[in-house]
Design brief:
Helices cover about 40% and strands about 20% of the residues. By secondary structure, it is an alpha/beta fold. The protein has a seven-stranded antiparallel β-sheet with strand order 13-12-1-5-3-19-20. Strands 7-6-11-10-9-8 form a six-stranded parallel β-sheet. It has a four-stranded mixed β-sheet with strand order 18-14-15-21.
Length: about 475
């Protein structure tokens, strides 16, 4: 979980390209890269940016240790000792701009912009994408679940099914950013201050002579934290009646049982019956927790069936993003130094959606002053001036240029924030609760049709006319050269 010692958390081709630049003498050439994704995950209407804190920690501690250098010296490429000494002295001196964690983000807009020498901007690609892709994916999945769960309590229960410890801990953090209320992971609780929640396993009940004894002893040990798992043997005939008995014993002590947990069977039917049994026993304050491979689809279905569930424990489907286990974010060169001047560069592909947008860019969120809601995201070059507040801004779809719209009476909110400037951290990392609150304000900026689970409205991401014209010109020039 530590970010120290991660200089070799990179792909070998990064080191090889750095070496080739060093041999060529081009390693100090200036370059600008942008990280973004091309397609929204899960068929959702938005994504939630996450991973910035880990990226900041990684950049701050980025250096090659003696062990790293010794390992590189053994590689079949036989890197020259002078190159290895260059790496030993390496520190990141570039600049990074990024979205704030918790921001709602969309395809083909820069989430992170990295500027510096080609040597340093190339090295950090793999780690930045690794941290951004995973945490953004999990935060998006968590926000999607939250949209379905409404005001219910959401617990992150995924540790044992996560792809190793880092995924469990940072995944729990990403889920908390997007609205989950607690995690079962104690290390995530310690590291990030996330509330922790837990009940007991079936093995606790199996350890004792009877289910009733197991419940009573658990309640004696932690009388203020009693949530009982009621499906070890028979939920309706044994588990709930025994839990009611324990709850009555707690009441006699002036205590109240928190909840029961259902972890198998027909959760809709069992929760309805459990609610009736608890209410008939005068235990209307006892909540019902459900777990068992839940995701936004099953939660939506259970709600449609009238399930009486207050709290959802979501594990495997969240922490592994089971229905789409990768975001697919990319990191593309958009500007490079030629003869002392920075010039835009473009990547052409046989797949139109893979053609990059050239040039260093800014992202603005266009907010209607009338409704306070987001109209579109607007991508332009840094030197372009935004129209005054009462001026007109021309929006057009970069894939369908005939689709144009003029907007007035708007606020243009810059979305990319300076994080590092010439190697110095200039951004104060917010507390996790601040990030959660920021995510909530982001959700409030969007109409419900962009946030819904099924068939969300497509949010507009527009290029400025100048950016679009540069892209069209560069594509045409490359096509012309390829035909010569």
């Amino acid at each position: 979980m530590m970010t120290a010692g991660l200089a070799l958390h990179t792909d070998k081709y990064q080191i090889n390209m750095m070496y080739a630049h060093w041999i060529n003498g081009s390693h100090n050439t200036k370059a600008v890269f942008e990280a973004y994704f091309r397609k929204l995950p899960f068929g959702n209407g938005y994504a939630v940016f996450a991973g910035l804190e880990r990226i900041v920690n990684y950049i701050q501690s980025l250096s090659f240790s003696d062990d790293d250098i010794a390992y590189l010296a053994k590689q079949e490429e036989q890197y020259k000792p002078e190159f290895l000494e260059e790496l030993r002295r390496f520190r990141f001196k570039g600049s990074i701009h990024a979205m704030k964690e918790g921001a709602l983000v969309f395809p083909n807009e820069p989430l992170i912009r990295v500027e510096g020498t080609i040597f340093e901007t190339q090295l950090v690609e793999t780690a930045i994408l690794n941290f951004m892709n995973f945490q953004t994916l999990i935060a998006t999945k968590a926000s999607r679940i939250r949209q379905v769960a409404g005001d219910d309590t959401l617990l992150e229960f995924g540790t044992r099914r996560a792809q190793e410890a880092d995924a469990a801990v940072w995944g729990a953090r990403a889920a908390y950013i997007a609205g989950f209320h607690a995690t079962s992971n104690m290390l995530a609780g310690e590291k990030f201050g996330i509330p922790t929640k837990g009940t007991h396993a079936h093995s606790w009940v199996q350890t004792f002579r009877s289910e009733q004894e197991a419940f009573d002893i658990f309640a004696q040990v932690m009388p203020d934290q009693v949530t009982l798992l009621v499906d070890t043997f028979d939920t309706l005939k044994s588990g709930i009646p025994n839990a009611i008995n324990t709850a009555k014993k707690l009441e006699a002590q002036g205590k109240r049982m928190n909840a029961i947990r259902l972890d198998s069977g027909d959760l809709a039917y069992l929760s309805i019956q459990a609610r009736r049994m608890l209410d008939d026993a005068g235990l209307d304050y006892v909540r019902i927790v459900a777990s068992n491979d839940l995701d936004e689809g099953t939660i939506l279905d259970l709600k449609a069936q009238g399930a009486k569930i207050d709290t959802w424990g979501v594990g495997t489907q969240l922490i592994t993003a089971a229905d789409q286990p990768a975001l697919g974010g990319v990191y593309k060169l958009v500007e490079r130094e030629v003869d002392g001047k920075m010039v835009p560069t473009i990547k052409i592909s046989a797949n139109p959606e893979k053609v990059s947008t050239p040039g260093k860019k800014e992202v603005y969120r266009i907010i209607s002053n009338g409704s306070g809601k987001a109209i579109a995201d607007y991508i332009c070059f840094p030197h372009e001036e935004m129209p005054p507040e009462n001026g007109k801004l021309k929006l057009f779809n970069p894939l369908h240029p005939y689709m144009r719209k003029n907007v007035k009476n708007f606020e243009a909110v810059p979305m990319l924030t300076p994080i590092f400037i010439q190697g110095e951290l200039v951004y104060e990392l917010p507390q996790l609760e601040e990030i959660r609150a920021y995510h909530d304000t982001q959700l409030d900026q969007f109409w419900p049709e962009y946030l819904r689970k099924l068939n969300p409205e497509i949010y507009r991401v527009n290029l400025s006319e100048e950016v679009w014209e540069v892209k069209q010109r560069m594509m045409a020039e490359l096509m012309e050269h390829s035909e010569d």
